[in-house]
Amino acid sequence: MHRRRNCFRLCERDVSTLRLTRNTNLKIINGFCTKPQESPKPPSYSYNHRVPLHKPTDWERKILIWSGRFKKEEEIPETISFEMLDAAKNKIRVKISYLMIALTVAGCIFMVIEGKKAVRRNESLTSMNLEKKARLREEAAMKAKAE
């Protein structure tokens, strides 16, 4: 308990020294510091709201056509905005992911069909491995006899 009081007194002393060292334009109200209100100043410079343009490469031109943004390469302007290029790239990403999903589903269906065909022919990985091992043993025995 005695230690807590000493700690509190030390903190209280530090806070009072902080108040004395603060800027004079800060007001101390009920122990809280607030800055004086300043009127907002209009910017001294004028900002031009032009979007930075980019000259597309041949690959980016193909992306713009594939995404459906332009029909022909002649329709693409000399400079385009980065936002237009990003939107075209995102469309292509989405189309590629849909294609990958479709190919994955088609591959799964194909493998299920092939597995069912193998079951009908009584083929399994175990039987195929046993046949392969028997064949390799026969070949090894034939080589041993030949020597």
Sequence stretches where pLDDT stays below 50 over 5 or more residues: 16-23
Name the average pLDDT: 78
Helix content: 55-70%
Number of domains: 2
Largest sheet, described in full? Answer: 2 strands, antiparallel
Estimated share of beta-strand residues = 5-15%
Which word captures the global form? Answer: elongated
**Quaternary organisation:** single chain
Q: Structural class, judged by helices and strands? A: mainly alpha
User: Strand order within the widest sheet?
Assistant: 1-2
DSSP E strands, number: 4
- H/E topology pattern: HEEEHEHH
The termini sit apart by 98 Å
Radius of gyration over alpha carbons?
39 Å
Number of helices: 4
Describe this structure in words.
- The chain is mainly α.
- The chain folds into 2 domains: 2-33; 53-146.
- 61% of the residues lie in helices and 7% in strands.
- The chain contains 4 helices and 4 strands.
- It has helices at 2-21, 58-66, 82-120, 125-146, and strands spanning 27-29, 32-34, 53-54, 80-81.
- Strand 1 (27-29) and strand 2 form a beta hairpin.
- The longest helix is centred in the C-terminal third of the chain and has 39 residues, at 82-120.
- The protein is elongated, with a radius of gyration of 39 Å.
- It starts with a helix and ends with a helix.
- The model is unreliable at 16-23 (pLDDT under 50).
Please outline the helices and strands:
Elements: H1 2-21, E1 27-29, E2 32-34, E3 53-54, H2 58-66, E4 80-81, H3 82-120, H4 125-146
Antiparallel strand pairs: 1-2, 3-4
Helix pairs in contact: 2-3
